[in-house]
Amino acid sequence: MSHEFSENDWRRLIASLGEDPDRPGLVETPHRVAKAWKHWTSGYEQNPVELLKAFEDGAEQYNEFIIVRGIPVYSHCEHHLAPFFGKATIGYIPNGKIVGLSKLTRLVDCFAKRLQVQERMTMQIANALMEVLEPKAVGVIVKCRHLCMESRGIRTPGEETVTSAMLGELQPNLAMRTEFLSLAKD
Ligand SMILES: Nc1nc2c(ncn2[C@@H]2O[C@H](COP(=O)(O)OP(=O)(O)OP(=O)(O)O)[C@@H](O)[C@H]2O)c(=O)[nH]1
Ligand SMILES: [Zn+2]
C-alpha cells in the first residue's frame, strides 16, 4: 500500500488555505512537500528487527551498561502532524548479543519517522531491543519539544516532555536504575 501523498493532494491543500498554488513561489512546493513527507514517514518501510543486525559478543563478554546519549529524534505527532524533536538515550546490558552502535541511532530514526506519540515511540524502541538482543536490561529515555504545544494550543515555548522505558532487570532492580540514570545524565 502506498502511503505517499500525491503532489495533487498537496496542491489542493495549498489552495484550501486560500493561496494560489500557481504563483511562482509555490509551483514546486507540492513536489517538494510530497518528497519531504516521504522522508518523514520512511520509518514505515524499515524493519527494526532487520536493521538491528545483532552479533555475538566475543570471549570477554561485556557485562555492563552500553549507553549512547544524544541520539537525535525528529518525529511528527499523530494528533496535529506537527514536529516534535529532541534527544534519546539508550542503554542496555547485553546477554551475549550486541549491536553496532550506529544501529541504535537507526532504530530511533525508524520509529521516529512515523506518525507518533512520544510514549509509544519510547516503548517501541525499548521493545525492539528486548526482542532482538534479549539483553539483561534495556533503558530508553526520550526528551522532546512538541511544536503543537509550543506554537499553538497551550503555547508553552521551551517545555520539554520526558518519557522513559525500563525493561528487564531495570524494572525491579533499584540500584541498576540508579546507575543507568546517573550514566544517562547529560
Ligand atoms: N500523550 C501525548 N500527547 C501528545 C503528544 N503530542 C501531542 N500530544 C497532545 O495531544 C493532545 C490532543 O488533544 P485534543 O484535545 O484532541 O486536540 P487539541 O484540541 O488540538 O488540543 P490542544 O493541543 O490542547 O489545543 C494535546 O493535549 C497534545 O498536547 C504525545 O507525544 N503524547
Ligand atoms: Zn500534536
From TrEMBL:
Ligand binding (Zn(2+)): 77, 80, 148
Pathway note: Cofactor biosynthesis; 7,8-dihydroneopterin triphosphate biosynthesis; 7,8-dihydroneopterin triphosphate from GTP: step 1/1
GO molecular function terms listed in the Swiss-Prot or TrEMBL record: GTP binding; GTP cyclohydrolase I activity; zinc ion binding
InterPro entries, alphabetized: GTP-CH-I_C/QueF, GTP-CH-I_N, GTP_CycHdrlase_I, GTP_CycHdrlase_I_CS, GTP_CycHdrlase_I_dom
Domain GTP cyclohydrolase I: 7-184
EC numbers for this chain: 3.5.4.16
Keywords: GTP-binding, Hydrolase, Metal-binding, Nucleotide-binding, One-carbon metabolism, Zinc
Protein name: GTP cyclohydrolase 1
UniProt organism field: Duganella callida
Lineage, broadest ranks: Bacteria, Pseudomonadati, Pseudomonadota, Betaproteobacteria, Burkholderiales
